[in-house]
Every structure is written in structure tokens, then in C-alpha cells.
Amino acid sequence: MRIVYWSDFNCPNSYIGLVRLKKATEELDLDVEWEMKPFELYPTLFDEPINSITTQNIIKYGITPEDAKAKIEETEKIALNDGIKINYKDIQLTSSRNAHRLVRYVQKKHSDISQDLIFKIFEANFIDNRIIADTDTLVEIATSLGLDENEIRNILESDSYDFEVLIEEEDAIAMGVDAIPLYFLNISEEQLVVPGAFEKEDFKIAIVDLINGEIGSKSYL
Fold first, then answer.
1. Going by C-beta distance under 8 Å and a sequence separation of 6 or more, which residues neighbour residue 159?
2. Whose CA is closest to 219, among 196, 198, 193?
3. Per-residue DSSP letter, 43
């Protein structure tokens, strides 16, 4: 099975959805080839934290501070129900571009550890509240998986894979992608597009339907 998904390291639903989907594929004992595609939620952010996620939610959704706080707390509760103890309210919100560049490189050169890298970046951002735009942070994550420090530092300190990230984000916009996470589940010639962070059991149902050729009578869009 091949799963291609658009996601961002600043999106809690992308993290939650990926955890759920991974558990679903494991419980179904599926051999999966994964590929993450970039879709920056905050493409204008810089490499240093500029304000809180509460402020960002107020600006982005046009809601009150109280509603923004409640939205963040609800997201934390949803994650906890899936066994993920995130600290969303204290996230140090920075650009995710460097993280996406690193993922593009690792998926191309070291694909066997790419999903481990992706989960570690999510954990660094949402659990440890580290600055994922920081080169040293990303180098530390990559070297913990056995990658060469100089190799990774050279990638991050240059503009390597920046063009690839931009092109893939433009491709997503051209396809009409306007929200993440978005999953493309592929088995043989069959494909199912799943928008959003489905519950684990719903992911399993969708996958089984795809495997059994029963998706024609159902819609997950």
C-alpha cells in the first residue's frame, strides 16, 4: 500500500491524523510506503517565534481570545485521547520550511527512516515545544536516527530542496488542496482520497473498503 499525504509540522490535526492512520495500518498488518508532501499553514513565519498560537488563532479564524484558548484546549484533549500528550498552547510557532526541506531530502536519500524523522519533528514541536526552524534542533533529530551531522547541516544551511518544497506546495494549490491533512491511499490501481484526521477505526474501515474494492458505493470526501 502507498500513502501520500499533505501535512504540516505546525498542524496538530496533521500530527493526530498521522498517528491514527499509522495505528490503523499496523493493526491491519499492512506494508506501507509513505510519502509526506509539504503544505505550510503559516508560510510567512520566520525562524524565530513571533507570537503565541493563541494570537495566531485569533488572527486566522477571527475569534475571541476566549474562543481561541478553548479551541487549543480542545485540540490538546483530542490528542490525549489518542495517546499523544501535546502542549499546543506553548508551541513556539516558527517556519516549518526547514523541516519540510529536511524531509524531502531524507525521503529521497534515506527513505527507510523518513517516517521516524517526521514523527520526531512533530514530537519536538508539539510535545517538547522546541523551535523546529532551528538548524541545530533538526540536526539533532536527524543524527539521533543515524544520519551524518555534516551531511544534514550542509543541507539545512544551504537552500537545498527549497525549490522542491515550493513546487509541491504549488502543485497542492493547483489540485485544489485548501486544508490539511489530506491523504491519498493507493492499492494497485485503486485510490481513495481521505480529507482530515479520521478516527483510527474509520481509517481502518476506509482501508478495508479500498482493499476489498468496495469504495465505489461510499464517499469519504
1. none
2. 193
3. T
Strand order of the β-sheet with 2-7 is: 33-38, 2-7, 182-187, 190-195
- Per DSSP (E only), the strands in 134-204 are 182-187, 190-195
CA 97 to chain centroid, in Å, comes to 12
- Please report where in the chains the cell 498517528 appears, as a residue: 19
What average pLDDT does this structure show over 102-108?
A: 97
Which amino acid is residue 134, in one-letter code?
A: D
The yes-or-no verdict on residue 219 having pLDDT over 80 is: no
Per-residue pLDDT tens digits for 39-63? 999 888 888 887 789 998 898 889 9
Please tell me the CATH superfamily of domain 2-201, with its number.
Answer: Glutaredoxin (3.40.30.10)
Residue 201 CA neighbour count, 13 Å, CB half: 0
Instruction: Report how far residue 64's alpha carbon sits from residue 45's, in angstroms, rounded to the nearest whole number.
Output: 22
